[in-house]
Structures are given as structure tokens and as C-alpha cells.
Amino acid sequence: MISRVSVRLISRRCFSHSAVRREIRDIAELPDRIHPKYQEARNNDLLTLHWPSPPRNILITKKPSAPSITTLVIEYAQHIHSTYPSTNLIFRPATAHEIQCSLPFPIYTAFENRDTENDPGFQDKVDLICTLGGDGTILRASSLFATTDHVPPVLSFSMGTLGFLGEWKFKEYKRAFREVYMSGANAGYGSALLEDEHHHGNETHSGAAAAQSEHNLLSGWSSIRGKSMGPGRGARVLLRNRLKVGIFGADGQRVTEPETETAGGDVYAMNEVILHRGIHPHLAIIEVFIGGRFLTEAVADGMIVSTPTGSTAYSLSSGGSIVHPLVPSLLLTPVCPRSLSFRPLVLPANTPITLRLSEKNRSEEVEISVDGVRMSKGLRLGMEVRVWGEELERETHGLEKHEKTWRGGVPSIVRGSRSGLGENEDHWVGGLNGLLKFNYPFGDDGASQ
Amino acid sequence: MISRVSVRLISRRCFSHSAVRREIRDIAELPDRIHPKYQEARNNDLLTLHWPSPPRNILITKKPSAPSITTLVIEYAQHIHSTYPSTNLIFRPATAHEIQCSLPFPIYTAFENRDTENDPGFQDKVDLICTLGGDGTILRASSLFATTDHVPPVLSFSMGTLGFLGEWKFKEYKRAFREVYMSGANAGYGSALLEDEHHHGNETHSGAAAAQSEHNLLSGWSSIRGKSMGPGRGARVLLRNRLKVGIFGADGQRVTEPETETAGGDVYAMNEVILHRGIHPHLAIIEVFIGGRFLTEAVADGMIVSTPTGSTAYSLSSGGSIVHPLVPSLLLTPVCPRSLSFRPLVLPANTPITLRLSEKNRSEEVEISVDGVRMSKGLRLGMEVRVWGEELERETHGLEKHEKTWRGGVPSIVRGSRSGLGENEDHWVGGLNGLLKFNYPFGDDGASQ
Amino acid sequence: MISRVSVRLISRRCFSHSAVRREIRDIAELPDRIHPKYQEARNNDLLTLHWPSPPRNILITKKPSAPSITTLVIEYAQHIHSTYPSTNLIFRPATAHEIQCSLPFPIYTAFENRDTENDPGFQDKVDLICTLGGDGTILRASSLFATTDHVPPVLSFSMGTLGFLGEWKFKEYKRAFREVYMSGANAGYGSALLEDEHHHGNETHSGAAAAQSEHNLLSGWSSIRGKSMGPGRGARVLLRNRLKVGIFGADGQRVTEPETETAGGDVYAMNEVILHRGIHPHLAIIEVFIGGRFLTEAVADGMIVSTPTGSTAYSLSSGGSIVHPLVPSLLLTPVCPRSLSFRPLVLPANTPITLRLSEKNRSEEVEISVDGVRMSKGLRLGMEVRVWGEELERETHGLEKHEKTWRGGVPSIVRGSRSGLGENEDHWVGGLNGLLKFNYPFGDDGASQ
Amino acid sequence: MISRVSVRLISRRCFSHSAVRREIRDIAELPDRIHPKYQEARNNDLLTLHWPSPPRNILITKKPSAPSITTLVIEYAQHIHSTYPSTNLIFRPATAHEIQCSLPFPIYTAFENRDTENDPGFQDKVDLICTLGGDGTILRASSLFATTDHVPPVLSFSMGTLGFLGEWKFKEYKRAFREVYMSGANAGYGSALLEDEHHHGNETHSGAAAAQSEHNLLSGWSSIRGKSMGPGRGARVLLRNRLKVGIFGADGQRVTEPETETAGGDVYAMNEVILHRGIHPHLAIIEVFIGGRFLTEAVADGMIVSTPTGSTAYSLSSGGSIVHPLVPSLLLTPVCPRSLSFRPLVLPANTPITLRLSEKNRSEEVEISVDGVRMSKGLRLGMEVRVWGEELERETHGLEKHEKTWRGGVPSIVRGSRSGLGENEDHWVGGLNGLLKFNYPFGDDGASQ
Ligand SMILES: NC(=O)C1=CN([C@@H]2O[C@H](COP(=O)(O)OP(=O)(O)OC[C@H]3O[C@@H](n4cnc5c(N)ncnc54)[C@H](O)[C@@H]3O)[C@@H](O)[C@H]2O)C=CC1
Ligand SMILES: NC(=O)C1=CN([C@@H]2O[C@H](COP(=O)(O)OP(=O)(O)OC[C@H]3O[C@@H](n4cnc5c(N)ncnc54)[C@H](O)[C@@H]3O)[C@@H](O)[C@H]2O)C=CC1
Ligand SMILES: NC(=O)C1=CN([C@@H]2O[C@H](COP(=O)(O)OP(=O)(O)OC[C@H]3O[C@@H](n4cnc5c(N)ncnc54)[C@H](O)[C@@H]3O)[C@@H](O)[C@H]2O)C=CC1
Ligand SMILES: NC(=O)C1=CN([C@@H]2O[C@H](COP(=O)(O)OP(=O)(O)OC[C@H]3O[C@@H](n4cnc5c(N)ncnc54)[C@H](O)[C@@H]3O)[C@@H](O)[C@H]2O)C=CC1
């Protein structure tokens, strides 16, 4: 407890450089993350979010180099801190440094120079992700969890430049956060939850965080409940399938991307993986295999393997169909293929896809990008990229009905309309029409044909 | 029994007109159909066909008005009859009349003038469908089962004009039929099967067919087994999702298509349902709703709602993506839309889609076609077409592992390569490359770029 | 003169049925048409309209069965009649009958029961066409001149349902008409024009119309000039290439379409000619020849041969590129081709294109439509459709510079912006962006990305 | 003369390094180039090549780093040298160094270290270009003439990897060269030609080349004529429009690309100019103006402005229509636009098009490529790329009919079929079907549907 007090004192002297360093705490100090459940609702493809106990560790990410957004991030953080005092706010290192002086309470980060093998990272601690920015901000946040199949739920606010994935408008942030925070805290199994929370707490909390956990029990849901619109209303979640990308060297070994800290492992992508000729002037020649069988040789600027979520991103620009995020599939879309007959394909999500550089390829390598971020090393002859759709698993084994849950994907909190039934597709249909100008009518004012 | 004898005699005098009539027997005389099981195989999205007892009632359909195919149908029928004496051959009425004189044994049909409410039809009797023709022949055969969710397995031979859905070449017919006939007749539950057959026989056979059933027990699998390539080899089945189409009048009541005998019910389509302006010169204006919510107003020649199977048919010509038949989805593809921004959509199979004529539409009605067959009445103002993807159900409840099965869809017998692993996609990838000339390489001979 | 007076008297008794008949006069009574010149302007691909003498015979066409437009037609006619008293107003027969009682002066038409071989038709008499309606109205008006290569200039007003070809808004009609009427009436060659007019008049006028011609000389331009914005301002004209369609029987003879009165001749289309399977369920199979050489066999719903003007009509919906109306070319665009590799083609305007039904085609005939109007007879085996781009000819031979002119095409009066240079493309670029929503930006309000 | 003899001697000692240097002569020594005429033929859009006197200076270019092609280049050069002794063979510097030892006669080049302002280059000396390689080789050869509007005729042989622009097969090289060499040397104006040649010779030849010119008069056409297939047969030429690209700095001044030696001038492209995001991960944002007027803001990977010739290159891969090389037009095709409604446009060849980086663009610059070659500097904010179609001019002023000619474009020698009429489109239609697999039929063998 002493350390916390001193930090608070120090934070008032934020102009002092040495003080600043201490104000940003190590994420390792936080209790371990809480895994919510995602339960099926009647007549609805969206799931309902159920916290076993109130979320505590909130990651807030933002679009970089946009000062106006930084201001709003501070406003947001202050609101969360004062309304939900038992929560801890986590930021990416750069953001933490940028805003810590503006916040009169300690914040957390996963320091970049930590031992990534042993020290905990975001994926060990974050209960809930909040993003303030555009689609890129959501993609970047999701890529912090590129090596785990348990991504925390994502509450995304689109800011100005409207994105397709960003569900909420910033001005709704109070209602939105409350809805997510309270989700699943319904009277019905209140006591069970409390117990569960106790149990959970004992097991996972440690050090300075343990006391805080106690505090949660008192100040968490119960203190908020009065403000809530009713305990039974759950936040709705769209589980967005990702795809898993593994890069293999000519020796058959996995190639590691040092920057993403994926020690020898595969990474998940929310939108897509792309091979592209990049700066090389000549057409890339890429061999495509599906299910282990040779499908075709693409002579093209590049090849995209996309999730349904990514079907409205690069794949769309390259002529792919728009695929609803709930269709379990992968899209194979060529970029500027030198062919009249390379129609985009939609494959079952569980089809393994392999991409190799052809021996006929004229440059030494082609670029590999995951969710719009280029990897430091390209694909060379002999190497291969292997892609699988992420399998969303329904965990049912030995569970009571209300305990069944889903796992995998990016659990995206969907903005609900107040009215009920049949409005579930709101967000997607709304995005098609409102943002992508899908089938936009001809005529003078866009209103009538 | 007397009548049967006389029929046989008469059949030798096929030139006699009155005799001919009697030679074609009523399908009602046949034992009820046998429902096979479709079981999951390891590492394979295809299912394995398991007959509880040997199939008996074989429907053979063919492409109409193609004399050369008629000759092959006769050859095929004679082979089945002589090699599998306990089978009964069923034909559509027109085909039965066309070929009966060429066959020295009785054949069966469902007479057109029967009481469709009470008298049994193809869906009550057929164990196995064999089609000789092109994709149209398969579509027509499947539409004989447009009102049931238990379509018999389909063994399709493509004849000359090669189709995408037709799996087998005619010259393979002996091997193909044997493989299907024997499928699942493995040593393991041989005796159980015999018993089952007894039981089944007693329960369902009736009248003249009962004696024949006994014959089956002796002459069925056991008599063939020696010729088989080994009892354990099962035919592989691709369950092709259909979609269900209901047409509703302005009064909210289902509209019946008299010709398809769908008394007040919905029909299933294997490829697609299409609304099209048809002969009307002006663009059709159609409102599209998904999940009960307004999606868009299509100003177009027409609108296609297609299954993944149909993604290589009309939807392809209209610019839709190619969707693998195992992706549980529906395609919404406009035909010549008067819009720059109507990109084809791929929706979850369980999304209900509704199409309505807009009040702005200038003609009185638009055509409705199901699998390429135009309905006798078009869609008028106030009416609506409702479409759902067929749900393939996995029946597991209370069943032993080997009893679990799938239901729904069109169970299509896939032509397997002899080698095993990884070759499962053969038929589809092969069709893309070999038939649709997918990503056909530029260059002088199509072999090198 | 007597007859004219009596008509005037009679017109006051329009309720009398017999009187009505006489009030609509025969177009034959009018003086022959005046052919304007189209001269090149500096730095400008648009031409300038030059009347040798004021236009007299004005054809007004309208969208059928739209009562609100009929009212505006009457307003328009009354304005022309009272402001330009020396003009005569011509209508299509149905319109003439519909509105004559509302107009207190005689109107003209080409009666449908006239001897089309010998009696003059619209193409012999009309100086200027005004259309009130949408694109269809312009197409229908243009098709009244489908057999001549001298289409009168077209002043088109779009009414409500905005069209792409309609240049002017109805509320601008006074300015628009004055601009066109005065176009070329500049001081410079005023007297020459008067002479020309005399000459022309003597040669061509006849009967009752001769006196009126005299009147023109006094009341034409000179009476209006004061109201004009200056004599030198010429209306700008976009010459829209048409294409010429000839249909030939199996005997090699031209087939005549009775309804369009094209006695044995070819017809011009402003948008396109289309072959389409129409009501036949099966794909049409059409052989395409260019320059006499076999190009390809289209297996499709249909084939479009389009002008650049038509590139924003049906061809657009079928996936064709947008071609600027000043590119001398023909578009060959398939409708729903059963091919992955049938990319639309743009050919030189002078390439002869021939379309034939293949022997493999399964229906007896395919529909032929010209500018959206289906011909009474379809294309059958052995017949062929031959298409050429209309050649816009520059008549220069032995002419002074200011006399050079262009001939052919549909001379469409373009709506000019007040400012000068560089704004010539206004109408087309404006139409792309404003009406077709070309490259419509993504984002919330369509204003920002 | 002495120097030449010594060179010959030296050439036998090609292993000596110093000797080698002298064997490659400076192109400045050659007589100035001869400009052929391109005359219109009846019923034919192709032109006929007419040499006023036999061509002398032959540039031979080849695909780099392909040893097998080098061997054929030597074979080709030896054939030309021995059969047409009055010709001089020119190579690019690298090729000259690569092959000189294999050729027992002097060859010419334009040395890279020459004073490009004052010393003559390829465009001053080359009469005829022969390319051995693929489309890239033709593009590179054409780019040697990127600053002149008089490109010599191009005789292109495609080697192995078949190209779309390469007309001839290498095995035809003897016939092909003879046909081009003799083209226009018809009896009719033989003597006039001789005179012309005298005259021309006096005027332009200089130094050591003068004597050679005399030799030409004797050994040129007259010596070959016997071998020719008849003097009247002219080589047919397709004039391929290029486009002209100017790059302007923020200061409004032209930016020079040092490598292409285009001192302050514009360059011509045969295929296209492309702006592309290149290595930058974010979408490029480019403003497009046509005719000085804002057309649209492209948010895309890039923008292509292409000639009709380039319509089968990158523009095709990006979804553009195929435009026949004789349609005077420019294509505006976006590369992967983030828009559902950016349909490719075809504009009149004389429309000026301007591309600018938007202020919203996120990277500092975008790549500029001309005919597949990236410029050393990209396009930055404030700069602009201006593009015009090259105007093919018909020079008629004061000329006799047979003297009229065309100027501009890349005069490409088309491979003629022996038969006459109607076969003119051979090369293009043949290329579509044979190489690009245009509308390639579905079905088993590509032969029947
Ligand atoms: N994604 C794509 O389609 C890309 C296309 N290119 C094209 O390549 C051209 C440069 O050619 P290379 O240096 O050989 O590059 P490259 O080695 O990448 O080959 C380009 C391909 O385009 C073909 N090609 C070039 N011009 C053509 C034409 N006018 N019509 C039909 N095919 C044509 C060539 O035969 C070759 O197959 C550029 O002008 C550009 O048009 C360049 C980059 C990407
Ligand atoms: N699926 C489609 O896109 C179809 C298009 N059409 C087009 O309609 C034309 C006939 O027009 P209507 O009789 O009014 O039929 P309609 O009432 O079906 O309307 C056709 C639509 O096309 C527009 N249009 C016509 N010509 C155009 C042009 N040159 N550029 C841009 N838009 C144009 C009209 O404004 C109208 O919105 C035909 O020439 C054909 O091009 C006809 C049938 C189907
Ligand atoms: N423009 C087009 O592409 C049109 C396509 N069709 C399609 O034809 C089907 C009816 O077939 P038919 O009665 O034989 O008509 P049809 O004789 O017009 O032939 C249709 C063609 O489509 C092929 N086909 C049918 N289903 C297919 C599938 N699932 N995948 C790949 N190819 C397929 C057939 O092999 C045949 O080549 C309809 O369900 C519709 O999908 C019907 C009309 C026009
Ligand atoms: N030509 C193209 O369309 C290109 C697209 N991209 C896409 O951009 C993504 C990376 O995004 P940023 O880093 O923000 O790059 P960015 O700044 O280039 O923006 C990409 C655009 O795509 C939108 N976007 C991203 N994901 C989307 C989705 N799933 N659905 C709809 N729109 C989506 C964003 O809102 C933004 O407008 C990549 O995953 C890739 O899909 C990247 C490069 C080129």
C-alpha cells in the first residue's frame, strides 16, 4: 500500500523527469485477466457477453499522432477512473508516456524492454480493449493479441474519419462503457458470480493487486448497478474470425518476425495476409495450394488471403465479394492478376492455404504484410506462407447450458439499436449502406432513382 | 401374382400398344426407400455413405431429346438389372415410355395422373438417383425432391457436354455403381445389417414387392461382394446445401406452383432462385431485405439468390465470386444492376432473405425461376419471395458414434482418386481448372506464361 | 388562308369531336426543314450550332403517361408559340391528341395512317427537337430519325427522374430555348442569311406554308434579338455517334421491321443494339465477327453492341467501361457471359460487327432490341445482325472555313456553364459524379473519406 | 578508309582488350536516318510502309540476360550483314560489348558517355528497329525514342515467352526482314527513288559514311530485288498511339528524369504511366483532373493512364476494358481503388489529364512508372503529372496523294497473312484469342462448351 501512496504523491510532480518514470507502472503488477463468456442468444447470431466478475484491467489504444484524439483519450480515461474506481487503465508504451502527466492517477503499460519470454504482456492482463481511432487502430490493437486465441472483448469508438469496424460514436462513450462493464451482471446468478469472483481472485491475484481485488468486490458492479439501465441487458458480441499465418523457411522451419515478438509461432490476422511485389517492377509469380493440392499459379501484383472481416478492406479494392463476418470462410483474392479468368474464391474457413514463390518469379522476394503492416523480411524462393482460418470453438464439454461459451476470434462489441428483434444486422447492413455506399442509387440527390 | 406373370409375357409383345401400358409399373408397388447414413471421416470434409441394407429402388434420369444418351441409358439399365438382380429401375414417365420396349424387364415410374396427395411419389421410394446428362439433368433430378429434406444420394454421369456438377465419366459406370452400391457394407456390422434388412423389409414392404425383398436378402450385397474391391471402401459424399424458396401472395399466404406439386409448401433449389425482368423491356426494381431488415433496392435485370453450388452457374456469369460448396452461405448477386456499387454479397446460410417488387417497378410482374425453370406465375406487387439456406443438420442425439449422420442437402457422390490423403478437393479444384478454365494462363499454348 | 382561319375558329370549339380532327394539321403543310451547320470552336471538342435562318418547325416530345409532364408540355408550347410566333409546333400523334384542346392554336403531327413512302414524315420537316422527360424520351425522339443521317438538334429537359442524357432542367426552359433559337444569328453574316432564307424558302415551301415563311423573315430573329443575351453566343453541340443496325435474313436480304417504317433499310441506334435470350430459359449462343473475321462465340444472356453514349446505359450494368461520347468507338459487352474471361471490348467506330445465332443455340430465336425497344421479330438461325458505327463526316469540300460542318450523329445541345474555357466537359463529368455517383467516396456523409 | 581496314584486322584479334574498344564504332559516323512514309491503303486501317530509299541503319535490341537469345541475335546480325551488305548494325552499348567478338564486322552504338546535348543519339540515326525478346524488349526499344515523335518502324520477334506486342516468330526472320527492307520499292517510282536517294545522300551523309552511301545506291534494293517476292508488296504498319508524360514541380517547372536524358522535356510512353503507393503501406490519395476540370479523388493503390496498346497490360490486370489500338483514346484505370464505384474510363486521346497528390495522402511521395520502369524520383505534394495522348498527324499539306503520310506513334510492322481482304485484324484478334485466352470456352478440352 505504501508504494501506491508514494506514487500518487509523485504524480503531482509530473514535471520532474525521474518521477515520471515511476508513474507508469508495470502491467505485471496487475491481477491476471478475467475471461468472459460468450453465450448464444435466441434467434440471434450475435453472442452475449458475460463477465464472471467486473472487468478491472482496461487497455485503451488510440490512433497515433492525432492530438485531438489524445485529448479525448484523456477525457475517456478520467471518466473510467472516476466512475469505475476499481479499474486499472493500461496504455501502449508510447501513449502512456504521452498522456501520463495529464492523468492524476497511475497508469500501466507493458514495457518494451521487458523479457517477453517470462514477463507478462498485454495478453496476460487485459480484460477489455477500448480503441479510439479508425479501423487501423482496431487492427493494431488486435495485433497486440496476435499470438493468443483469447482476445479480450473490443469496444471501439470511431473518431472523425469513420471506419467500417468501429462500432460506436465517441459521444456515446459513457453509455457504451457502462453497457459493457455491466454485461452479464444479472440478478439471476449474482451470488454465484460473487463466489466465482472470490475464487478467481484468490487464484490469480498477487502482490499489490490483491487488496484491490477485494475492493472490486465491493465497488464493482454493486456500486454501479444503480446507474445501469437494468442488470439484465448484455452487451452483444460479434466474434470476428481471424486467420492464422505461419511463415516457413526453405528448411521447413518457422520464420520468426522479431518485431511482433512471436517467438517461433504463428500470428493471427484480423483482415488479411498479403503477398505483394511491392517495389519490384515485375509481376510476382506465386503458387497457390489449397488443402495441400496445387490450385493455381498467380501472375499478379499480389495475392490476398482474407477473413470475412477483411472482405471490406483490401480484398474489396481488388474486386472481391463482400462476405458477412459470420460466414466461416477465407477469401482468396488476387491483386491485379495478369489473367482474364482469375475470379476471387471463397473457401471454407478450415481449408489450409499455402503460398509459395514460383521459381519463375523475377525478383528475389515479395513483400509479406499482415493487416496492413509489412514484415521486416519478405518471402523468398523455397519459403512458404501457410494460412488457416481460425476455428471458433464452442466449448460445451461438461458444461451447463448457461456456461457454454465460444472461444477464438476478435470479440467485437456491437452497437445495438434500442429496439429488439431483427435489428441485429444493424451494424453490418448499416455500414454497407452508410459507409461503403453499397448500391448507392443513381440520381440527382442520391435519394431517388 | 398373376398380373406380374402376364406382364412379363406381354412385355415380349411390346409392339402391342395395350401391352406396353402395363409393362410400366406403378412406383407404389415398390418397397419404401432406404435412408442411408452419411458419416464423417477423419481429416475430410466429405462424408462416407453407409447403406443400412443394399439399395433396391434406383431412379435413372437422363437429358431429354438426346437419342445417343437414350442408348446409353438402356445399356446402363441392363447392366444394373443383370448384375444387381434385386434392384428395381425407376424412370420419369416420359423416359419410361421411351425405353420400356428396349428393356426385357418391368420398370417403374410415378404416373403423372396419380393422386399426388395420397399416392407415393419418387421421394417415398427412390433409394439412389443416377443421372446421365449434364448439369441440367442433375438439377431436374434434384427438383423431383424439391419438397423433401431427404434427397437420395446422386450418382451423376456427365455425357459429352461436360458439366461442372457431373462427377463421373460414363465409361466408369460399372465401377462407380458398384462402389456406391457396396458403400458401407463392411464386415464389421454385416450381420447387424442383415437383421436390419429383415426388420426393415417386414415393416415397409407390401404387396407384390414383399417376395422381391426376400430375394434381396440373398442376392444383395452378399452376391456382389466377391466382385467388390473390398467391402470397407465407402463412396464419398459431398452434401450440397440447397436453399428453400417460399412465395407469398399479397394476402400473406403461400402461393403454390401447381406444376411442381408443392401443395402449399416451399421448394428447395440446388443452384438458385432468380427474379428477372424477362420479356419486359424496363429495368426491374426489387427490394431486398435480409434478416427482416431493408438492405437495398435493386434496379437491375434481376436478382439471384444462390447456393454455393450455384456460385459457378448464373451467379458466376453475373460477376459473383466462386464459393466452395462447403461454405455455409447464400450469395446475393444482382444481374446487370444499374449501379456502379452493387458488389455481390455472401451471407450466412441461415440469413432469411426476402425479395419484393418495388412500387416503382414499371411492369406488372417479374419472372421467378428456380434452378433454371421459370415458374408459371411471376412475382407481382405485394407478393414476396422468401429464401433461407437449408440447414444441414447433424443428427447426433442419443446415437452411437457410428450412427451419427447428416441430413439435408443433395448428397452427391464424389469421384475419388485412388490415392488418399489431401486429394479430397479433387473434384472441385479439378473442375475449376479443367472445366471453368480458372486463371487460365496467358501464352501460346496455355501451358506456359 | 381560308382554311387556316376556319381552323382557328373551330379550335375554340374543341369539345366538338369533328372539330378536333381538323385542329391537328398534317406535318406535310409545313415548310421543309432547315439544316443547321455545326462548326468547330477553338480548343473545344464541342461544336457550335449555326442556323442559316431561324428554326420554324419545333417537335416537342414527352414521356408518356405522366400527367404532370403533360401540363408542363402545355406551358412550354404556349411559351414558344407566344414568344416565337413564327414557329410551328409538332407533336407525336398521341401527344397531339392528348393536348390539342389545351392549346389555342393549331398543332402539327405526322399521322400514323399516312403513306410513309410518299408523304413527308418528321425527318422531312423538323428543325429542332425538344424533349421533356428522361433518357427514354430522348431515345424515343431520336428513334423517330432512325433512318436519316441528319437528326435535328435536340434540346432535352430532364423532368424529375433525372437522366444522364437530359441536359437541361425544366425551369431553365426560357433561356435554353432562346439560346438555341438565336444560335448563330450573329451580325457578321446576317444579310447572307436573309438571302439564303429567301432562296431556301422559294425552293422548299409550298401551299399554305409559303405565306408563313414570309412572316418568318420579319418576325424571326429580328423580333427576338432584343431579348437575346447578345447575338454572338452560340449553343454548344455534342455530336453523339450512333450505330447503324441492319438485320439480314438467311437469304442475305435485309429484314424490315414494320413498326419502325424502315422500308428495307437500316436503323440507327443512339444507345445500343442487344441480342438477349429474353424469355427463353437457356443461355443464348451467339457468334461474333469483327471486320469479317470470327472473334468469339458468346455463351451468355446476350450481347450488347453499344455506342459511347450507350456506355452509361445497359453496357454499364453489364460491366462495360464508361467511354466518353467523343471517343469514336463501339463497345462489345456481353450480358452475363458463361465465361470467366470475356472482358468487354472497345473497338474502332468503323469496325463492322456481325452477330449470328450459333447452330448450338437451344431456343429458336433470341430477342433483338434497339435502344430498349424490342423488335417484333427475333433473330433466328441463318439470320445475322450487322452493326457499324455511324461515321461523323466533316464536310469540307469546296467550302469556306466558316461553312465547314459536321454531319451525322445526334446533335445534342449541351448545357453550358457561364464561365468559359475548360468547362466544356461540364455535362459529362458532372453527370458521372452527380448522377452516376462515380467513385463515390466512402464515409459517413459522402463528403469525406 | 584506312581506319576501316585496320578495324577489320583488329577484329580478328578480339581477345585483345584494346582492339575490342575500337571495333564498336560511334553511331555518329553513320549517315542520318531515313524517314519512311506511311500511306493509307484501301479498306484497311493499317498503313503501308514506303522507304524513299533502302534503310541502312538497323538497330537490333534484345532481352537482357538471356544467353539463348544472344546466340540468335548473332545469327540474325550475320544474316542481315551478309544479305544486305549496305546496312549498318547498331546495338545498345551493353549488347554491343556482349556480342562484338562474335561478329566479324564493325558494329555501332551510341556511347553512354557521349555529350547527349550535341552528339547524335539513336533517334538521329536509326532507320529501322528490330527487337528480339518479349513485350518488355519492345517497350525498352520504344523508350529509346521517348523524346521524339518520329519513332522508326519496329520489326519485333517474340522469343519463347510469347508476348502480345511481338508480331513475328523468329523462324520467319528472313522473310520478315526482306519484306520490311523492300517495302515501297515498287517499279512505279523506282527512278524517282534513286534520285531522291542521291539528293538525300548528299544532304545528310558525312565523313566516312559518304562512300558507303554510294555503295547503297548500287547494292541496296536493286541487288535484293531478285530475291523479293515482288516489288509491290508493302509491309503493313499499325501506328500505335503513345501518350506524352510531363512531370512538373511545385514551382510549375518541368522535372527532368536524368536517366532518360530528357533534358527538360516530356517523354512518350507506349503502354502507360502509373502512380503507385509502392512500398508505402497506406492507400495513395490522388486527385484526377481531365480537361483542366476536377474529376475525382482516387483513394487507391495507384492510378493508370494507359494507351489502347497498354489496355492489354497493367490496365487489364486492374480491370480495364480491352481497347483496340486504333481507337484514339486514353484509359483511366484505378489500381485497387477503395471504392465500389470507380469504373474504368475511356477518354478521347486529346483530353489532357492531370494527376496530383492530395494533401490527405499519408506518405511523402508515390512512385511514378513509365512503361514498367520506375522513375528515380516520386511524385510529391505540389507536383503534378500531365498526360496527353499523342496526336497522330496526317501530313497532307501540299502533298500529292501518294506522298501523304502519317506521323507520330510507334510504327509496328504487322505480320500479315498471305490472303488478303478482311484479314487485317489478324494480329489483334489472334492475340486476344491465342495469347490472352479471351472468352476461353468452358469445357473439358477448351474446344467445345
Ligand atoms: N500487375 C500487372 O499486370 C503489372 C503489369 N505491368 C506491365 O508490365 C509492363 C512492363 O513490361 P515488362 O517490363 O516486361 O514487365 P514484366 O516482366 O512484369 O511483364 C509484364 C507482362 O506484361 C506483358 N505486356 C507488356 N505490355 C503488354 C501489352 N501492351 N499488351 C499485352 N501484354 C503486355 C508482358 O508480355 C509480360 O507478360 C508495364 O508497362 C505494365 O503494363 C507491370 C507491373 C505489374
Ligand atoms: N439492366 C439494364 O441496365 C438495362 C438497361 N436498359 C437500358 O435502357 C435503355 C432504354 O431506356 P428506357 O426505355 O428509359 O428504359 P428504362 O425505363 O428501363 O430505364 C433505363 C435507365 O437507363 C437510363 N439510361 C438510358 N440511356 C442512358 C444513357 N445513355 N446513359 C445513362 N443512362 C441511360 C435511364 O435514365 C433509365 O434510368 C436501353 O437503351 C438500355 O440501354 C434496358 C434494359 C435493362
Ligand atoms: N447467363 C447465364 O449464365 C445463365 C445461367 N443459367 C443457369 O443454368 C442453370 C440451369 O441449367 P440448364 O437447365 O442446364 O440451362 P442451360 O442449358 O442454359 O445451361 C446452363 C449452363 O450452366 C451450367 N451449370 C448449371 N449449373 C451449374 C453449376 N452449379 N455450376 C457450374 N455450371 C453449372 C451447365 O453445365 C450449362 O453449361 C440455372 O440454374 C442457372 O444457374 C440459366 C440462364 C442464364
Ligand atoms: N488498395 C487498398 O485498398 C489497400 C488497402 N489496405 C488495407 O488497409 C488495412 C490497414 O489499414 P490501415 O493501416 O488503416 O491503412 P490505411 O490508412 O491505408 O487505410 C485503409 C483503409 O481501409 C479501411 N479498412 C481497414 N480495415 C477495414 C475493414 N475490415 N473493412 C472495411 N474497411 C477497412 C480503413 O478504414 C481505411 O479507410 C489493411 O489490412 C488492408 O486491408 C492496405 C493497402 C492498400
TrEMBL record, chains A, B, C, D:
Domain of life: Eukaryota
Any one GO biological process: NAD+ metabolic process
Transferase is among the record's keywords: yes
InterPro entries per the UniProt record, alphabetical: ATP-NAD_kinase_N (IPR017438), ATP-NAD_kinase_PpnK-typ_C (IPR017437), NAD/diacylglycerol_kinase_sf (IPR016064), NADK (IPR002504)
Gene Ontology molecular-function annotations: ATP binding; NAD+ kinase activity
Keyword Glycosyltransferase among record annotations: no
SUPFAM superfamilies found in the cross-reference section: NAD kinase/diacylglycerol kinase-like (SSF111331)
Signal peptide: none
Keywords, comma-separated and alphabetical: ATP-binding, Kinase, NAD, NADP, Nucleotide-binding, Transferase
Record-linked HAMAP family: NAD_kinase (MF_00361)
Family label: Belongs to the NAD kinase family.
Protein name (Swiss-Prot/TrEMBL): ATP-NAD kinase
